Amino acid sequence: MSNTDIEIVVEDPTAPEADSPQMASVRVVDVVVCLLLLALALTLGYDNWRTGAGWESTGPQPGYFPFYLSIILGGASLYGLVAAFLSRREASESFVTQAQLRRVMAVFVPTVLFCLATQFLGLYVASFLLISCFMRLVGKIALWKSLLTAFVFTAAMFVTFDVAFDVIMPKGPLEAALGR
Amino acid sequence: MEALGLLMHGFAVLLTWKTLLLMMTGLVLGIFVGVLPGLGGPNGVAILLPLTFTMDPTSAIVMLSCIYWGALFGGAITSILFNIPGEAWSVATTFDGYPMAQQGRAAEALTAAFTSSFIGSLVAVMLITFLAPMISSFALRFGPPEFFAVYLLTFCSFVGLGREAKHKTVISMSLGLLLAGIGMDTVSGQLRMTFDSAELLRGVNFLVAVIGLFGISEILLTMEERLALRGHAAGISLRVVLSVWKDLPKYWVTLFRSSFIGCWLGITPGGAIAASFMGYNLAKRFSKDRDSFGKGRIEGVFAPETAAHASGTAALLPMLALGIPGSGTAAILLGGLMVWGLNPGPLLFVEHKDFVWGLIASMYLGNVVGLVLVLTTVPIFASVLRVPFAAIAPMIVVSCAIGAYAIQNAIFDIWLMLGFGVVGYVFKKIGIPLAPFTLALVLGNRAEDAFRLSMIGAGGDLKVFWSNGLVGSITTLAIVLLFWPVIDKAVGSVTRMVRPAKA
């Protein structure tokens, strides 16, 4: 093998800029997560205490394990809260920059819309819409390539799951009109 | 040699055109998944799991395990050609693999990586072949207290031996155990933590959580990074393969050492990453020419790859023999077993001989076929990276949604998956490990059942966990491991106090 030159090059024109301002430090997120976990621990703990968290002659009641687990979770989150407040390292670390957040949202928002669309239009139509729109709008790929890829992928999924393997997916008006 | 006869039977089960075709499909899908940025073994297996729901268990597990082998092979391609480790355990492979590619020895490095992966897995599979039946027949004598003790040991070793901050491991594990408890209590039939919601009645399905945690969150994380890449293309010729293989015997010590480390760390939970680094570091330490490591030395590829694959394979040993997964991927395969209606645990070896030996035989066959396949098709797979991520990301999202929905035919599960995707993204960024969460979610109910059954048997007396030598020593070991960091520190400070006195 003599070819030492680089042969595969993929550029990423929409990459997040390195000098983008920071949106939140790791510390802030850590504190928020610990508070949320603490709230969850309190809710679940209360619910299990109501269910019965005692010890009968034959062993623990249904709520026993989850109740004490809630206490462990709560304790660990409290500790995490204090640790996050004291941690200098976490305060200086960036959780996400503005440019990164924009990119993450560029995937996350379409995914949420896709889930919504699945509920009303069925999975196959939703997936065609997601792939074609995402490729066109986020990836800036030629329209015909986007539509073709989306169609081929969705059709392949339909054939694999619905026809070959009999795994039934949520369907909407289009499939009903086509009689599937 | 009962094992050998059963293994031959396993091969007989496998050698049909249909199964071989499934194997090839699984391997190709797996390599594909391993090469793609942001996807790896556990994610690939989780996303492709629904494909197998309607197959019979043996075909399903053959295909899934082949996806896993394929993903392991695929990770090495990106590490060597692009300096991008597809998985945390391929990081050590980049140290010497990428320099080799830069020197124009990419084909050699790839051959070395694939061959050593093959050797590592082979050693681990042989270990499984002979050890798993022994352990499982021993474990057949286990009652609920013994099983609870083994579960406890698994949980405690994660907390005590994990490298992450202890409180974060505890958070992750207790959260997983809590979520596992949602729904109907299996012992008394009472509802817990459902807050009168019909959707929560089903409980949180393990696979839905895994698809969200590993699939969706990985896409969010990958989007954050700069996805530009520059790499070397490489084709492997038969001449290079043979010349690397001719030199193999020279490195038998390295290969043997790494296989041993890999098997050992694979059986204990969470080992593949540690194994690859340990394999690399030990090869470096015992080498006569230490400085040449990191500059493109073939041993630097052999050592971590052998260890990582031995450990990835050995992680299936406790899953098969005891029903306790040794890695994230093993946990997902375990989840698959339950979907196909098999009850993981030592009884598997008695009740489903065809399945178990089919799986073990597929490990042998899958590795041989996989080795040939990757050696011949590397250029094709390397060019997969040219496909823009904007086309791949939505396809992965769709596959995840199909997977999440197919498990229980519930739209709610798609939303749950999305929620877990966000949780996984945040947890990874603030350093809360996901492996304990996964493990707790899949084992939570079984651990609780074991505990409560032993309590019913013993009339609520905790002493049952020290009632005989076996269960007593496992329980004690678990507690020692839980407090291991404290004990380690205490021992350290005592020796420090003693030593100056002597000096």
UniProtKB/TrEMBL annotation, chain A:
Family matches, as Pfam families: TctB (PF07331)
InterPro entries the UniProt entry points to: DUF1468
Membrane listed as a keyword: yes
Record keywords, A-Z: Membrane, Transmembrane, Transmembrane helix
Segments traversing the membrane: 28-46, 66-86, 107-131, 143-165
Boundaries of every DUF1468 domain copy: 32-170
Transmembrane as UniProt keyword: yes
Protein name per Swiss-Prot or TrEMBL: Tricarboxylate transporter
Organism, scientific name: Bradyrhizobium retamae
Automatic annotation (TrEMBL), chain B:
Keywords attached to this entry: Membrane, Transmembrane, Transmembrane helix
Annotated DUF112 domain residues: 20-438
Membrane is among the record's keywords: yes
Transmembrane parts of this sequence: 20-40, 60-82, 109-135, 147-163, 200-220, 251-280, 319-343, 355-375, 387-408, 414-443, 464-487
Cross-referenced InterPro entries: DUF112_TM
Name of this protein: Tricarboxylate transporter
Organism of derivation: Bradyrhizobium retamae
